[in-house]
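lol so apparently i was supposed to do this last week
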Amino acid sequence: MEGIMKTAVMTGIRKVEVTNRPIPVPAENEVLVKVEYVGICGSDLHYYEAGRIGDFIVEPPFILGHEAGGIVVETGSNVRNLKVGDRVALEPGKTCGTCEFCKSGKYNLCPDVVFFATPPVDGVFQEYAVHDAGLCFPIPDNMSTMEAALIEPLAVGLHAAIQGGAGIGQTAVVTGAGCIGLVSLMALKAMGVSRVYVVDVMEKRLQKALELGADGVINGREEDAVAKIMEWTNGAGCDLSIETAGTEITTTQLIQMEKKGSTIVLVGYSASGKLTLPVSTALDKELTFKTVFRYRNIYPMAIEAVAQGKIKIKDIVTNIFELDEIADALEQSVENKADIVKGVIKI
Ligand SMILES: [Zn+2]
Ligand SMILES: [Zn+2]
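anyway here it is w/ zinc ion bound
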């Protein structure tokens, strides 16, 4: 399909312009997707604001956006699993398929992964994208392409819940109620965890957590989170926790409120990349620490959970912006983190 499409290009720190580029051509194993929705992720905002995350440095012009849903409009000559008109969720990471991690199924750890919107690989804040057919997962008729876009962050929450051994009858705590905290909450509930408590310091996020099914929320600025969890669990502590805030305070609180022998899943990156923690307490309790890097083998499960109504993923969205107003959308999202819990760009 020849033609011109709109693309949102990051041209410098806190600068994004909508410009025209040629519509890309799919290779034989790829499809061309008309992108319909792309979620705004914390990592996009970080690149936009700071120009880097750790060793990944933006070299403008660069395209952000990695949470995409859309419609297949053209297929490469070898593509058999998809046809024109299929609505799909795009898994953003293409891996080598031959290294020991890929072969053992832990493909998210592939050293050669090529991932949307991770410098130098461009993302998909644009009207069309080509992508490996094997990484485009069809969604059923009762799901929207906005929900397809949100499968990406949901996959992180499900991976964290699975890593933590979530199951029926447990009590869990999630620290941080940004997008990843909220999808972790939803994943835990969907996996049968009986009670999920959420800790944050922003009221609007806590309200959102309640709306999405949290059994109790704690504003860590106003209340002693550890005392509150101990009260709610009759002194027992929690069976499992997912840390998404990336702070020493929240991680320390989890160590204190965990039941002996239980598991903490670390998901949030701390600002400095380091945490000082009460390790003796963790040893005394024989806690297990797990970490997650993105996710693996989750998309089909996540799509099924949303299609069956087990996870109402669209309810996390607080703001929908048009592609033409993306500069404003990113600026507002950075300036107003307390109110914009999850934004998406409609393309
Ligand atoms: Zn994301
Ligand atoms: Zn590999």
